[in-house]
Amino acid sequence: xxxxxxxxxxxxxxxxxxxxxxxxxxxxxxxxxxxxxxxxxxxxxxxxxxxxxxxxxxxxxxxxxxxxxxxxxxxxxxxxxxxxxxxxxxxxxxxxxxxxxxxxxxxxxxxxxxxxxxxxxxxxxxxxxxxxxxxxxxxxxxxxxxxxxxxxxxxxxxxxxxxxxxxxxxxxxxxxxxxxxxxxxxxxxxxxxxxxxxxxxxxxxxxxxxxxxxxxxxxxxxxxxxxxxxxxxxxxxxxxxxxxxxxxxxxxxxxxxxxxxxxxxxxxxxxxxxxxxxxxxxxxxxxxxxxxxxxxxxxxxxxxxxxxxxxxxxxxxxxxxxxxxxxxxxxxxxxxxxxxxxxxxxxxxxxxxxxxxxxxxxxxxxxxxxxxxxxxxxxxxxxxxxxxxxxxxxxxxxxxxxxxxxxxxxxxxxxxxxxxxxxxxxxxxxxxxxxxxxxxxxxxxx
Length: 446
Description:
The protein is mainly alpha-helical. The termini are far apart. The chain has a two-stranded antiparallel ribbon with strand order 1-2. α6 crosses α7, α9 packs antiparallel against α10 and α12 crosses α13. Helix content is 68%, strand content 1%.
C-alpha cells in the first residue's frame, strides 16, 4: 500500500470508532443513557421562530444582563401617551375659550362655568352603574312615600314608611335617601361635559347675538338632571347614550323659543316645518301642471285642516319692530337734516292726549308765536304761520286747515308764489339762531 492509502484507511477507522456508541453494561447505565438522549432531543427543538434553535444558557444570560430593559421602555411609552393626551386637552380647552370670546351669544359667566365643569372627574362605567342604582333606590323610596300619602290622606308614619320600603328603621331609610341624592349629584356633575358639547355645536355653527348660550346650557343641565332621575342601569346601556337624547331635545327647544321675540309654541314650529317640507314636495310634483298647490291639497298632505294651516302661517308670519327704530319723514320740514322720528313717536301720536298735554301744546304754541313777533315783521309772521299750520283755524277760509302749500298761501295773501317762497326763506335765515327752539317745538308736536 502506498502511504496515502494507509493514511486514508487510518482516518476512516478512527472516525468509525468514534461514531460507535458504547453499549450499557447494566440497567443503571441504560437509564442514564436514555435520560441523556431525552435531554439532548428536547434542547435541540426549534423555537417558534424558524431558523433559530432554543438555547437555555443564552436566554439566561440575556435575562441576567438586561433585567430592567422592558419595564423602562413601557414606562416611557406610557408617559409619552399621557403627555400627548394632556396636550390635546389643553389645546381643546384653549380653542373652546377663544370660541367663547369671539361669539356674541356667550356671556362672560359661561367661561368660568366651563372651567368648573372640567374640574370634576369623570366616572367609570362600573361607578356609573352604582350611582344609577343608588339614585333609583332613593327615587323608589320617595315614590313610596307619595303613594302612602295619597292612600291614607295624610303623611305616613315612620313605621309605615319603613315597612313599605323594607327597611329596618328610619336611620337606614334616611341614609339610602342621602346616598341617592349624592349619587345623583355626582352623576350629573361628572357628565356636564355632554351639555357643553351640544351647546358648543350651536356656537360653532354661528349662534347669533339674539340667543343666549347660557340659557341653552341651563336648559340642557335641567334635562341632564331629569335623565339622571330616570336612568335605569339594569337595562344594559350607558348613561351617556340615554342622557344625550334629553340634552339635545332640551337645547333644541330652548333655541327654538329664543328664535322669536314673540314666543310661538313648539307644536306650531313643528307644524310649520312639516308644512314647508310638504309644500316643496307638492311644488315639485305640480311643476308639470305649472300651478301652485292649493290650501286644501297642502292641508291634506300635512294631515291638518285648512283652518289650522291658516293659523300656523299667521303665527309664523308675525313681524316685530323696534320702537326705537328711526323713521325718516321726507315730507316733514327740517326732518332730513336734524332729528329723525322713531316708531315710538308715531305710536304715541295715535294715543288720545290728556288735558295736561293739550294745555302744554297750547302754551308752547303761544310762546313760539310771541318769539316770532319779536324778531320778524307782522307780514312775515303771518306767512310763516300759514305755511306751517300755526294760524288759528277760525281765521282761515272754510276748507283750509293745517299747514298750507306755497300756492295756497300766495292765493290767500295775494302775492306770487315765488315772492312768498323768498319771504319765507329770508325769514328762516333770520331765525337761524333760534332753530334749536323750533326743533323742540317740533318734537312736542310730533
